[in-house]
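User: Design a sequence. Structure:
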């Protein structure tokens, strides 16, 4: 059974930092591209950051320079370090695993991030 379990969300003041983690089980983690998405109330889910099996990263323009995605294949975990948080970063953040070859695609349950004073 595949599971992606996010953690690390919470309430933070503007300018603060959070580190999200996503622990994967039931998959061969090293052959999955990993990504973070977010969905704010009333908006569509959007891609925040992606890290490939080879470690290549890409970010949404809105988070470039503030967020950093990384992965630890030994721990089957992907991280999202979020700095200089803004109220507009408030959303439910979802972890995604996409197989590098076929259509296997999995989602976590999401973790709430709220940026507010």
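Assistant: Done.
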């Amino acid at each position: 059974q595949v599971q992606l379990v996010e953690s690390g969300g919470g309430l933070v003041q503007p300018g603060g930092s959070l580190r999200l983690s996503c622990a994967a089980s039931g998959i061969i983690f090293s052959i999955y591209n990993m990504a973070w998405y977010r969905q704010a109330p009333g908006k569509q889910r959007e891609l925040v950051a992606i890290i490939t099996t080879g470690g290549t990263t890409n970010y949404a323009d809105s988070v470039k320079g503030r967020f950093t995605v990384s992965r630890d294949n030994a721990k089957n975990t992907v991280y999202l370090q979020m700095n200089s948080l803004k109220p507009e970063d408030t959303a439910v953040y979802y972890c995604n695993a996409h197989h590098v070859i076929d259509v296997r695609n999995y989602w976590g349950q999401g973790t709430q991030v709220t940026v507010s004073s």
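The longest strand covers residues 91-99. The radius of gyration is 13 Å.
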